[in-house]
Design brief:
Elements (H helix, E strand, L loop, with lengths): L1 E3 L2 E3 L6 H8 L3 E5 H14 L5 E6 L6 H10 L2 E4 L2 H9 L7 E3 L6 H10 L2 E4 L2 H10 L5 E6 L21 E2 L3 H11 L3 E6 L8 H15 L7 E3 L17 H19 L4 E4 L3 H4 L3 E12 L4 E5 L8 H5 L5 E3 L7 E7 L7 E9 L6 E5 L19 E6 L2 E6 L4 H5 L14
Parallel strand pairs: 3-19, 4-5, 4-12, 5-6, 6-7, 7-8, 8-9, 8-10, 10-11, 11-12, 14-16
Antiparallel strand pairs: 1-2, 3-13, 13-14, 13-18, 15-18, 16-17, 19-20
Length: 416
């Protein structure tokens, strides 16, 4: 969202205040041009013979967003059978979908096998069961590199005590399973966390994967996951994807020469592709002055966007209705019956009741983590692309809230 002549606009000159009026508030808005920009940055950053970017759809799983990334040429990273099915409905070919579950049973994995997608296994128990049941199906193995990385302990997933991945120290056991079951290992995978700034984290993990890869002669690809840091406020630091691309490319090309064939280099970004493309619009219900704080209470809450409360995440907040007003300090809060805070003592152009605020970086892990807590409805979603806006999810109603609830016979009225 950019400021021009005293007004905010989305790509293509779309006015967010018009969207607020046309679709009601609160409202999630996604800018497809930013998604395309970020996808192109990923592709152009790596100079290797074969590169594949698989969009991590858990970040934002609306089927229209999936279809948009398919149109860019992306594959799909999924973590549940439901995400696999969404990907197929969005038009992805099964071979362009990789399924990387955690803690599921062989039955769900079997469903993914039946759908023809690529399988990525992250523990030796399931690897052995899979080998006995599906020895003819090539698989990928998720390696735990024992690297502590990420912007928050809750999103660091590659350390020694993580539930994710097979420890690289367990490779002798993996080889025993592969030998006894006859499995073909087609790929190796690693993901260390989210919000990683230092390229050295990826390079350290890369060396671990390269060393393990030498032990598997029939690989087709190596998947480095993702975890790139994006800026959350003005002047914030971010992963230098171009520098990382140059350094990884050199080392990957050298490895492939020694390996004897060109493998596909895969990344599976989610936040990097959609975080900055998302904008959450909400109306100010009330300005409340206490002895020490001015609260701006909006018509939303942690039920719609939980990251500030769950991760202590910072999201920049702007006043779309009064962008050039005098700066004042506000604590922006929601309407949920909890301590429900989006930002504390933020300097924002003067906020008035009925103003429209925008919470930025609302594309990743925002709507997908929303709920009906306090029996509130989830908001609508709108996609802006090439100067036009499209409703891609209707606002919920009471009918949606009650859809799967069943009245027990003891509460049914007895008719005389």
């Amino acid at each position: 969202m950019y400021l021009e002549n005293g007004k905010y606009y989305l790509s293509g000159g779309v006015d967010p205040l018009n969207l607020a009026q046309n679709y009601q508030l609160p409202l999630y808005v996604y800018d497809g041009a930013i998604m395309k920009r970020q996808y192109d940055r990923m592709i152009q950053a790596f100079d290797v013979p074969k590169i594949k970017v698989n969009y991590a759809c858990k970040a934002l799983s609306n089927i229209n967003v999936l279809s948009l990334f398919k149109s860019f040429g992306a594959g799909l990273d999924t973590v549940s059978i439901q995400e696999v099915e969404l990907g197929l409905k969005a038009g992805f070919e099964p071979g362009d979908i990789i399924y990387t579950p955690n803690g599921v049973n062989l039955e769900e994995i079997g469903e993914a096998v039946a759908l023809g997608v690529r399988i990525n296994i992250d523990n030796t128990s399931i690897l052995e069961q899979f080998g006995q049941a599906y020895s003819n199906i090539p698989v990928c193995i998720r390696i735990n590199p024992h690297i502590m990385a990420g912007g928050n302990s809750k999103i660091s997933v590659g350390h020694i005590d993580s539930k994710f991945g097979i420890s690289f120290h367990q490779m002798p056991l993996v080889h025993r399973i592969v030998k006894t079951t006859g499995l073909k290992i087609e790929g190796l995978h690693m993901h260390t966390g989210s919000g990683i700034l230092d390229p050295e984290v990826f390079l350290s993990g890369a060396e671990i994967l390269f060393n393990i890869s030498k032990e598997f002669p029939d690989l087709d690809y190596i998947d480095f996951g993702s975890g790139f840091k994006v800026p959350y406020k003005e002047g914030d630091v971010e992963t230098n994807i171009e520098e990382l691309g140059a350094r990884i490319s050199d080392r990957f090309n050298e490895f492939c020469r020694n390996y004897g064939k060109d493998l596909t280099l895969i990344f599976e970004p989610g936040k990097f592709l959609v975080s900055e493309a998302g904008f959450f619009l909400a109306k100010v219900n009330v300005i409340k002055q206490t002895t020490s704080t001015v609260f701006a209470g909006i018509d939303s809450g942690l039920n719609h966007l939980i990251r500030p409360m769950f991760y202590d995440a910072y999201h920049q907040i702007i006043n779309v209705s009064n962008p050039e007003g005098k700066g004042r300090f506000y604590t922006v809060v929601g309407y949920i019956c909890e301590t429900d805070t989006f930002g504390v003592n933020r300097r924002i152009p003067e906020i008035r009741e009925e103003d429209v605020l925008c919470i930025q970086n609302a594309g990743a892990y925002c709507f997908t983590m929303s709920s009906n807590y306090n029996s509130r409805f989830r908001p609508a979603e709108v996609l802006v692309y090439e100067g036009k806006d499209y409703l891609i999810r209707k606002r919920e109603t009471m009918e949606d809230l009650l859809r799967n609830q069943v009245v027990a016979p003891i509460f049914e009225k007895v008719e005389s």
